[in-house]
Amino acid sequence: MIKKYLFLFFIFLIFNFVLSIQPPLSEYNCLKNFVTKFKLSTKFPTNSTGGYDFCSIVSCNPVNGSINGFLSLQSESTTPTTVTVVGTDLSCLPFNNLNLQNFLISTTLLYTKFFTSCSTLAINSDSITSITQVLAPYETFTIVSKKLNGALKMSNFINQKSILITNSNSTSGYTLVNDALAENKIKLETPNFSGLLSVPDLTGYTSLGYPAFYFSDALEVTSLALANIKTIGAVSSRLYFPSTKTIQFPTSYHNDTSYLTIQGKFTKPTAVIDLSKFVNCRNIQILNYDKTFNINGEIPIKTSPFTDIYYTDGNITKIPIGGTSFVTWSTEQSITIKKSGLSGTLPPLSGVIPTYYDFSGNSISGTLSNTWCNTNIIVTDNLMTGTLPSCIVCHLNNSEVAKKFTGNKFTNLVTSNPPCTTFAPKIKVDKSQKTIILTGTDFGTYTSGWILNTTLSCEKLWTKVTYGSNYTCTYPSTTTLDKVSYFWINFNTPGRNYTFPAISQVPTPNSIIVGTSNSVTISGTFFSTYIGYVTQSISVGSISCTVGTSSFSSITCTLDSAPSTNTEQKLIITTNSLIKEAYISTVVGFNNNKLCPNDCTSSTRGICYMNNGTCKCNSGYVGLDCSGLQCKVPNCSNGGTCNTTVGLCVCDSSHQSLDCSLDFKQCPKGLNSLICSGGGNSCNNQTGICTCNSSHQGLNCSINYKQCPIGSNSLICSGGGNSCNNQTGICKCDSSHQGSDCANDFIQCPLKNSIPCSGHGICNNKTGDCTCDSGFTNQDCSGYTCTSNNCNGHGVCDTSKGICQCYPEWQDIDCQTPFKNCLDPTCSNNGICKNTTGICECNSSHQGLTCSIDFNQCPIGSNSLICSGGSGNICNNQTGICTCDSSHQGPDCGTDFIKCPTQNLTPCNGFGNCNNITGSCSCDQNHQSEDCNIVYKECPIINSLICNGFDNSCNNQTGVCTCDDLHQGLDCGLEYKPCINNCNGNGVCNNQTSICTCYEAYQGETCQFQINQCPNNCTTGGDCDTITGICNCYPLRINNDCSGYECLDPNCGDHGICNDMNGLCICDKGYRGDNCIYVDHYASSVIPTKEEGGTVLIYGLFGEINNDPNVQVGNSNCLISNITSNSIECIIGKGSGIKDISVTQNGFEWIGKSMFNYIKSKQSCPNNCNSNGICNDLQGKCECYPGFTGHDCNSLSKTDLISPSTPKVNENTANGIIENGENKFEIMVITLQEKTFTNGVLKQYNLENNWKLLEIINDENNNIFKFKQNLTDSSEISINLEIIKKDRIINFADYSFEISKDSIKVSINISNYIYSNSLNYLQLHLKSNAYKTNKTSSDDEFDCNLDDGSDAKIDNQDLENSNINHENFVTIIKDNKILNGRYIDHVISDGISTFISSRTIEKDSNSITVGLNLPHCKNCLIDPDFSVLLSTDFKENCSDSNSNNYIIPVSITVSIGGAAVLVGSAIFFYRKKFIENTLKIQLKRLSKNNSSGSDGGNTQS
Questions:
Q1: For 169-223, how does the pLDDT look when each residue is reduced to its tens digit (9 = 90+)?
Q2: Of 764, 795, 815, which marks where a domain is finished?
Q3: Any idea where the EGF-like domain is?
Q4: N or C: which end of the chain has fewer CB atoms below 10 A?
């Protein structure tokens, strides 16, 4: 309770703090003058003191009260006024967004940019009747007027990225003229034109994003120019035609259009509208004003399979599932049909169909079957009943799911803890594809609610494979899933968390407890994901344990009976095919949680005793973790040792065999030093004797051996005179034998021409006989054989030729065929005589023994018989004609002959033709009946149907239609539709259309409602529901009269507010983009690379969204290798010099002018050291010869001539003072300016004489004075002045510098400065004064170093050229003494060294002011310093007088801290350095003080 009151009290304090804020005085007076001028007393009442509490009414900065955000002002005058808003009325306010309502507007306000910090201007004023000039360069410009008419030139909108022009008078309008030059058409992105009279031609506008076009009621359909729609090349095109005009639905669009919205009253199409060629269109929205845009109750368009369809307020009677009569939809489409009269029951799904349907606001009835589970179905506000399927019920605790089904009468639509017993996701990990696959039952489609643990993460959202049943998640390649055993997924709906295995692993228990009542509790991993997909069984000993609950990490089960407690019992857990065994103690309450080493390696090697953590190894395995293999003979027969790694004996040198039980003796080695000469020879290590292979012989098998063949008499080479060579293995036979084994006798065959068997046969030397080749004969194979050796006994074979000579009665090559002659050997020249039979073979057109008679085939009937067979049908095959009997007809006699009805002996009564095939009459057009004796009259035909079809009937004797109850007319072609309730007496019924024509004051289908007008007639932004008097706004239109425009993201990314005048987001400071999702990026520091090229580091603010990032250095691209929210790393090629740097992302460019400076490999020295030193080109610094000093060695180093200096700090002014002799030098921080990118001064803070001393520190080492002053309520500037007590080295921005004793070091801190605009930058001014004190020296009149009255010599080239050795010098030579002002060209920006610039601002006869251009950073440190040295022209002796030299060292460090808030802008120009032309500075000589004074003293002026 106390916390509650404290919280309320805190809110009270905040509320009062907000109410107490007031704008700065100048802004307060500015707004007060406007309120007074226009008498805005209602919105801005005075308070009790007579003043105004502006910040309680308008948007003020919560810190300093500045009106630098959104300002909306509305006239309160109800009568015409002549008081006009002019630019100077409000140019004194720093708002960035201005909205003016109902004022009389000066035209100069339209064409001149008075409000420099403003990027968005909206004006609603009927005083604007035309736009005749180029509008002022506000990026977003809105003009609303009821009197804006005529032709508006697009060339007047070239300065706008977003333009909204509205004529809110529905009886008039305007047109657009495309007259802008091509280069001026690029900037416009979001045009919004309302009140158009025709479709504009936007040819050449290539940057369009989301244009919208609202057409006036006054348009003429004939001049609408619908063809111009194809010139609108935009991401999304929106066209809203008035409800008062009927137009043709446009059919031609630009190919680049991805999203199309079109609203209107469209004529009823007569054919399907084919838009399928516009394949780039991803979504088309059709918003109807009436019910005519359909074909037979279906959507009348055909789209590509990638186009989503949104159709509303039409008349669609058929519930489309897989498509329409004109097109089949694909799974890639989404279908939305709202408030269009869909009715009937929702059918179950089948086939390939879209996965998204929105049927909201229709009249669909029936139940929702589970076939819809794999779709995203929305049926809000229908008439459905019954129960929702489980796939939906499981996720009703998600309001996004539940609202899809509200407005029906589902009995189980429970949103709080809905019952869910079927939820069962299933996971598979595919490591090869680095993919997690999710399948299962009723796990839903709300993928953003599926959260993986930190072990894994999806690179993107879950990817749909099959909607509602199969999804995949690709995890990053950096994730080593091999090292991950399992992971969990939290399913937001229905609110369950499950752990899934990443690998296949046996159950792994780590704790097992047997409890009372025979209960068993097991903890560990890899048991089960959940019920449904894993079969488990558990037993302890021989007792089964019935599973009660099971999860990935635990199991509870109940034993069927009490287990034995005498000894450990074996626990067996079986999960599918994976088995885990362990021995446990079954003593009640004992925790078996002792894990064995390496889990006993595997279940096949050993089992863990979890009561004591020891392994029981299975047979064949040994070791603490059973990882070793036991040898078959454990002691290896005392002839060796067992190697348990491989389970084999390692024998000693005198034993062998697997168990080392056999002795070992070495066999002799061959000439090749191999035992038994190697090869296939073997050694008997028990006897030491070689056994040679079949190819070797000898004691060591070194001699080759080849066995000769053995003959049939079992003798080598068959014995006898034959011999064997067992080196080669070849027999040598004697002259009477042959063969490889010399076993065969040798006998010569008959010879011809000394050739055995005449060369035509094979000689058998065993018998001496020839075997002749085919075709040869005789003993020596010299003769030829006939085909038949004896010519079949009907002839004689001539072996010299191999040909049969046949006897006269026979023929053929082998004389086997008798020879017979025909009766007419010529066969009448109509055939061929066959001598084998003596019969003529006639051709197809003749017949007879001699082929002299013609032959013609008669037709064959369908029964495959000639003349169809039958006894009465006869074929004449000389003529080929059938003669049919009396009951048949036709060429093949295959058709029956039937007589027709006859009247007066005349078939068909003479009024028709007889078909003797069917026996029926075909009456002429004027007769009917079987015999054509009845007259026929035709009834009227419509729609190609007699009497229009349906249940209408025709009397063909009279030709008159009889209509059913639903039709009327001579041809029944008119529908008969009675009106409901006869129009309630408030109108006239048309019973052809069943439509009531209501009297003037009534409306509705049955004239049942009175007409109620809507506010402002819905301002052309919506349709008036005249029943309720409430506007139904068009998409993206809002407010009760639809006068407002809804932003694409109404929440503006939670970083802005939506301006309903133009539908554009007004982003908070620090954000930008159409939806305010991008940060206003900038760079605060750059670490460059050498001229050879390399890695560049850029630090700043870049946000989490980095779309299409690009870095340019000068004209070179810097290839990005890494980008984070606050840094960019990129690689660039070689270059040189100072370059602009630009960072582009999310479509916006930021530019840092002269922010990048290539690092030189060799540095040049200033003035080449004036020949008084050597240039160190690595550092760009002079190493002066003895006697010289200074940055360019142009000064003398004699310090014995120098009078000591006296440093001081003025505690009232915070000025640093150094006095030396009669000269006094002051160092002051005088001004801080906020400047625009065009160098204009927006704000200036005069710092002089406003410092407050905070603290003085004075000890042995330090003497520091601390000051500060407030810049605004939220920002301040502080300064520390330190008097240096001893020489020391200062390290700054990676460089080292020496600062001398008696110097003054100045540190400046600017914190929490809030910029008016991100285009702006800060410039800090430091001023140095040189004076003569009132004291003079008697030596002065003799000092030859005093000037002669001429001007001082000034050299500021280094300051204007920052590309030399990181040091910029301003050199002032006076009295032969040199004042060196050193400005380092680097700054420590948020802890990082980066390049900056400094420049001369102003000079006069005794002072110089230097400006430091500060980077955009939270903390910046800048370190200039000053010193006075001797010129080389300095004279040590002037006659009789001594000269004096003055050295004034000053060091200044500046820091900027805190948060600087940026205002959104299209392009950032960050002012890092301003390089001016060489400034010729001439300081007038210091006036010589001739007044007398005490010698040697210094006084403070």
A1: 888 999 999 999 999 999 999 999 999 999 999 999 999 999 999 999 999 888 8
A2: 815
A3: 627-661, 782-816, 818-852, 896-933, 975-1008, 1043-1077, 1161-1194
A4: N
Helix H or strand E encompassing 390:
helix 390-393
Please check the confidence at residue 1342 and state whether its pLDDT lies above 70: no
Same domain, 601 and 554: no
Note whether 416 and 446 are same-domain residues: no
Q: Report the CATH number at residue 610.
A: 2.10.25.10
833: β partners? 840
Pick the last residue of a domain from 935, 959, 989.
Answer: 935
Q: How far from 1345 is each of 1374, 1437, 1483, 1496, CA to CA, in Å?
A: 9, 9, 17, 18
- Structure-model confidence comparison of residues 1341 and 807, the more confident one: 807
Does one domain contain both 1361 and 1274? yes
Q: Are 230 and 210 in contact (CB under 8 A)?
A: no
Within 8 A by CB and 6+ apart from 1054, the residues are 1076
What range defines the domain where residue 465 resides?
Answer: 424-501
* Tens digits of residue pLDDT in 301-355: 999 988 999 999 999 988 988 888 888 888 888 999 999 999 999 999 887 688 8
pLDDT digits (tens, 9 = 90+) for 53-91: 888 888 898 888 899 888 999 998 766 678 899 989 999
For the sheet containing 1386-1389, what is the strand order? Answer: 1392-1395, 1386-1389, 1420-1421
Total length of the chain: 1501
Number of structural domains in the chain: 13
In a domain, 694, yes or no: no
What's the distance, Cα to Cα, between the start and end of the chain in Å? Answer: 66
What is this structure's pTM? 0.47
1366 and 1434: one domain? yes
Q: Looking at the structure, tell me whether residues 1458 and 1407 fall in a common domain.
A: yes
Any idea which of 119-128, 511-520, 1163-1172, 1479-1488 has the lowest mean pLDDT?
A: 1479-1488
Q: Pick the closest to residue 1384 from 1365, 1400, 1401, 1371 (CA basis).
A: 1365
* Interior/surface letters 490-506, b for 16+ CB within 10 angstroms, e for the rest: ebbbbeeebbbbbeeeb
Asked if 448 and 549 sit in the same domain, the reply is: no
My answer on whether 415 and 345 are in the same domain is yes
Question: Is residue 727 domain-resident?
Answer: no
What are the two backbone dihedrals, phi and then psi, of residue 722, each rounded to the nearest 5 degrees? -85, 150
